[in-house]
Amino acid sequence: MPANIDTILFKDIDEPGLNTREVYERRGGYEMLRKALKMEPSAVLDEMLASGVRGRGGAGFAMGRKMSFIPKGTMDKYLVCNADESEPGTFKDRELMQKNPHLLIEGIIIGAYCIGASKSFIFIRGEYDYVADILDAAVAEARAAGYLGENILGSDHTIDLVVHRGAGAYICGEETALLDSLEGKRGNPRLKPPFPAVQGLYQGPTLINNVETLMNVPVILNMGGAEYAKIGTETSTGTKMISISGQIKYPGNYEIELGMKTRDILFDLGGGPLEGRTFKAWFPGGSSSPVMPLTEEVLEMPYDFDSIAKAGSMLGSGAIIVFDDSTSIVDVCYKTAHFYRHESCGKCSPCREGCNWTEKMLVRIKNGDATPMDLDIIESVCNQIMGNCLCVLGDAMAMPVSSMIKHFRPEFEAYIEAKREEAGFGVAIPQTNRGAHAGPGPLLQPAQAA
Amino acid sequence: MPRPVVKEITFTLDGREITAPEGMILVDAAGKYGDTEIPVFCYEPKLGQPVGACRMCLVEIEGIPKLQTGCSTPIRDGMVVHTQTQRVHDAQRAVVEFLLINHPLDCPVCDKGGECPLQDITYGWGPGTSRFIEPKRHFKKPLELSPLIAIDRERCILCYRCVRYSQEVAEDYQLVLQQRGAASYVSTFDGHPYVAPFSGNIIELCPVGALTSRAYRFRARPWDIEGAGTVCAGCTAQCNVELTVRDERVLRVLSRDHSEVDDGWLCDKGRFSYQAVHAEERITQPLVREGAELHPASWEKAIEAAAAALKKAGDRAAALAGGTTTNEEAFLLSGLLRDKLGSSHLATGVGGEQPLDVVRALADPKLQATVPDLEFAHTVLLVDCDPIDEAPVWDLRIRKGVRRHGTKLVVASARPTALDQNAAATLRFAPGGAEGFLVALDAALSGDAGNLGGAASAAGTNATAIQEFADALRAGGEEVVIVYGDRALRGSAGRALLNIASRLNLANVANAGLLELPSTPNGRGLREVGFAAGHGPGFSTISAPGHGAEAIASGLASGDLHTVWLHHVDPLRNYPNRPAWEKALGTAQTVIAVESQLTDTVREYADVVFPAEAYPEKEGTITHPDGRVQRLRQAIGHPRAASDVPGSGVRALWQVISDVARELGHSAGTAIAGAVVSKRVFEAVPFYNGMTLDGIGGRGLRWQEHATFEVEQSDPFVLAVPASLPAKGESELRLGTFRPLWAHKDVDLSPALQFIRAKQVVELSKADADARGIGEGDRVEIGNGTRIPGTARIRAAIPAGSVFVAEGIAEHNANVLTHGIVEVHRVGPGSTDATSIPIQSTPAVEGRAEMPPSAGLPIPPREVT
């Protein structure tokens, strides 16, 4: 952590007993809730808008704006905390919830107060059973202390919170699939629009945010939105939890100020590559972000939402997965495709069939029964998936896979040749016309631009 | 409830300005107003909200970076849409390629081939070749999803239509998707057969050959067949159908979507009972009794015999009509009896006769609700009827209203209905208590506390319950539709109903009113063309009214009446009190029957039998309960007799009646063509004046929209409290009957429907069952003196003290029980009937009907035919 700011979410994180209300309150906990209840909900919203804090779950949409989309007026509104942290490589929310559950609860209560929701949920992935137990205990403590329930802290607001354990599907981290799952249905994404802010849980307006985002709410209220916005870069404000994993010396969770140089993250925090290895590539924001080779240029890149997007990838959930030169990129590619094929819900055709097809082609490559032409088909299939799906799961497979082929094509080709040799298939016969559709052209040519 | 008002807007589609109603879905607007087809698979407006799952309809909309699904985008003013850009073509081609990679492409042996949206869209939008060389997904095939439907999961493109239908339209909640991703497949939750009253609709919904009709599989290809539009005459709902005909045989029944009649759905009875048309058991030539036996006879001989018997009987002749009787047949037959023989002993329904002023008042166009009103009304009230059994598609229509338009449903019936789960209020009265209920409801609405208490206890309920129900009925809004069965109209019930209508001011509210469920499919038409004891065509007054059904039976038994003509009617099966009818038919001098099967009536009692036409062979008109005159059109030729001599087989029934009239010298009752009779009907019934067969066409004409029918308005009637129901002892139960959807002679003769033929069930409450040591599925006997066996079904929603058995079924019919108070007991030790599989025997909430009540029937697995 640079010296100019203190850690925020990780402040006191290793304090023993921080997960109990007593210690949390001793550290100033629930003061912000008291402060919020004295403010108008719109004033709370103004602070959020001023902070410019962007969603920490993956999409990076400004939380304040999302909150402002929730209609005013009396109706059944809901706040849902997305704790389904299922993106491979992401493990920040687990530590935050495990060690500091009351900060999340406080953030949820303030958020619910701000949008006028009386019911809120934490949708936590089923595998985080022990974390859910901690949350349950914390919720019970908060309820006993009058922070949750009817007339919280003597005000006329009713806010309740339910911790709901998911059943273990990646797709339930997608906000609308999460809502379906919460309603007791099959966890399939819904068509958008209508967006959850208009028609979400049980058809009511619903605010869905990630754990880390909601934990920032009391922090922002404490610092003041404008003050918070000074941390980080102009468009990526605040600090970000990152989870570093892969072939690196010191994997783990770190809190950084957005805009920190990639080199500082990987070498100062992560400790650089393992003995005798060199970095090859990384996923900058979870397994669904396009892979980037770790060139000098990339190492100079500031780690924030916009810089990474400009470089052709995304910050996502802040899960950095690093590969060194001992790893075959084909294996990484296969693992990624396999994961998304397995997790595709099957609702929309491009994702269901495209992920399946891509994985099968990669299996063929690994078995030595492929030609370099198959790389063209994989790229084309990925292109056909991207942007055409109901939700972003299809894109989450297509983007890393096509990026790997784009950046490491020679390695793929060498792999294919080597595997063909090994399997005894001999030299690949060049096939033409398999990279593109051989069918008739479009019925009508698009109108020529004037 | 206000129906949506549409505003016209203009948007740009591929560079052209298109004007269309605002908010219309882009796919529809492009097709209807822009002459541009945007391909779709999962989109089907009848299934509710679009889901955007197949991604076939991607289009480019200016201002939105990503391609959008046309099936979920409502058009807005000034929107600029491109459907022919390279980007759109690439996306659509990609989706077709994706859908085909796991599709077996077995079109040459697929039933859908030639009429398959996947084929058509592949030709129009897909790539010509496949790049997919991986192994395809494999499933065992074909599997029976139910005895009626085969499922081929390899062909399935997972468009979700069938699942959405099951979940959101039929609401039977049986179909689900199992697994996920590329391994997803359609199934029932625990693999049990998908048996539901409306299951066949998924065959038509399926855009590929994944769901096929087992009765139609491999019977024809689309280029072998012709479509013939007509109207299903299987029940009162009169759904519009298209018959698939090959070589003069009906091979399939499809819906001919008419939003004001059936909303595009069919029940399984209508969809599969066509097989009875070609059953070997069918009577295809006239029969005449000689000595004790029926023998095939020539038409001349049969007509002579019938004419002679009628001539001899004179005004002691009677006629009953029902089933698929057309307006034309009823008109000719009633004319023959009334004008030539001087008899008005004409009966149709099995309900009590109502006075002519009530019959007229109930036909008031101002009080007439229509089928779409069921969907859009504020409140729908069901009075002692269950649409699922009597007019099945109305059940779907009411569900749609409740689900999508917030219509409030209130149910008052003796037997729990299939719609109870969707009802805002339900009221149970004792079997036979409909009259008391209506009088009590009228009293509750008018604030007549005296009548309220008396009538409520006469109905077997109490004043508070009725008052709460009346409040619930009033609370929804002014648009109220009351659906009632004509069997409920006994005694003062008709007057009470009119009173209720006037207290709710239904005559002056648009989209509100009464909707009758007649007990025979063309009950309304028969009444309107004058086939009734109390009035002539168009409810005209007649000088000498005749007897109703019950009086005809006693008249025949006592010898007052001599001859009876049974037109598509089987009194021993479908009328109450079988012993009385056995006596009547046994005593009658001559029984003339128009019948298609060797029923008990025909076998034991008929003296002259004319072979009946099946509805696909008929030509004529029938009248829907909401007044829509619809046209039956001949789809296939009449079957020939066994001798194969031309002219010896089935003849048109208008012609048969006309021939009998000619034989009797009644020249006014003869005709040379069916269309001539139709013309006469349109002239004779004042409010049918001006109609023509062409005008009726394929969509029908509601006479209320074209003609007037003045009814004298009267003040609300003063009603007396009906007599109390007969007392019952401690161990006795009150008997109610119901006619299951499947209780139909055509179901009995259709091989595909054998598995679901209605058998006798004895439905009783948990308390009564426990008191008698009866468990679900036990064999029980019910009766008082005469007893019939049946299988026990325990339904939590039945109040203690009532028991229900099925009528209209082939064996152990309820109409042999003549006493309204019965005893039930279990027979045989441990006599659980293993073939009885209740779909859901334990309702989730006490007091709610289980789903669906008519479907809990045995489902043995069957071989693929």
UniProtKB/TrEMBL annotation, chain A:
Annotated NADH-ubiquinone oxidoreductase 51kDa subunit iron-sulphur binding domain residues: 330-375
Organism: Solirubrobacter deserti
SUPFAM superfamilies xref list: Nqo1 FMN-binding domain-like, Nqo1 middle domain-like, Nqo1C-terminal domain-like
Protein name: NADH-quinone oxidoreductase subunit F
A molecular function (GO) term: NADH dehydrogenase (quinone) (non-electrogenic) activity
Stored InterPro entries: NADH-UbQ_OxRdtase_51kDa_CS (IPR001949), NADH-UbQ_OxRdtase_suF (IPR011537), Nuo51_FMN-bd (IPR011538), Nuo51_FMN-bd_sf (IPR037225), Nuop51_4Fe4S-bd (IPR019575), Nuop51_4Fe4S-bd_sf (IPR037207)
Cofactor: [4Fe-4S] cluster; FMN
Chain's role: NDH-1 shuttles electrons from NADH, via FMN and iron-sulfur (Fe-S) centers, to quinones in the respiratory chain.
Domain of life: Bacteria
Pfam family, one: Complex1_51K
From TrEMBL, chain B:
Domain 4Fe-4S Mo/W bis-MGD-type: 225-281
Family according to the record: Belongs to the complex I 75 kDa subunit family.
NCBIfam families: NuoG
Cofactor note: Binds 1 [2Fe-2S] cluster per subunit.
InterPro entries assigned: 2Fe-2S_ferredoxin-like_sf (IPR036010), 2Fe-2S_ferredoxin-type (IPR001041), Asp_de-COase-like_dom_sf (IPR009010), MoPterin_dinucl-bd_dom (IPR006657), Mopterin_OxRdtase (IPR006656), Mopterin_OxRdtase_4Fe-4S_dom (IPR006963), NADH_UbQ_OxRdtase_75kDa_su_CS (IPR000283), NADH_UbQ_OxRdtase_ferredoxin (IPR054351)
The organism's taxonomic lineage, starting at the top: Bacteria, Bacillati, Actinomycetota, Thermoleophilia, Solirubrobacterales
CDD domains (UniProt xref): fer2, MopB_CT
Catalytic activity: a quinone + NADH + 5 H(+)(in) = a quinol + NAD(+) + 4 H(+)(out)
Role, per record: NDH-1 shuttles electrons from NADH, via FMN and iron-sulfur (Fe-S) centers, to quinones in the respiratory chain. Couples the redox reaction to proton translocation (for every two electrons transferred, four hydrogen ions are translocated across the cytoplasmic membrane), and thus conserves the redox energy in a proton gradient.
Protein name in the entry: NADH-quinone oxidoreductase
Enzyme type, top EC level: translocase
Domain of life: Bacteria
Domain 4Fe-4S His(Cys)3-ligated-type, first and last residues per copy: 87-126
Keyword entries, A-Z: 2Fe-2S, 4Fe-4S, Iron, Iron-sulfur, Metal-binding, NAD, Quinone, Translocase
Chain residue ranges for the region called Disordered: 828-865
Domain 2Fe-2S ferredoxin-type: residue ranges: 7-87
Entry keyword Isomerase: no
Necessary cofactors: [2Fe-2S] cluster; [4Fe-4S] cluster
Enzyme Commission number: 7.1.1.-
Residue stretches of biased makeup (Polar residues): 832-843
The keyword Translocase appears for this protein: yes
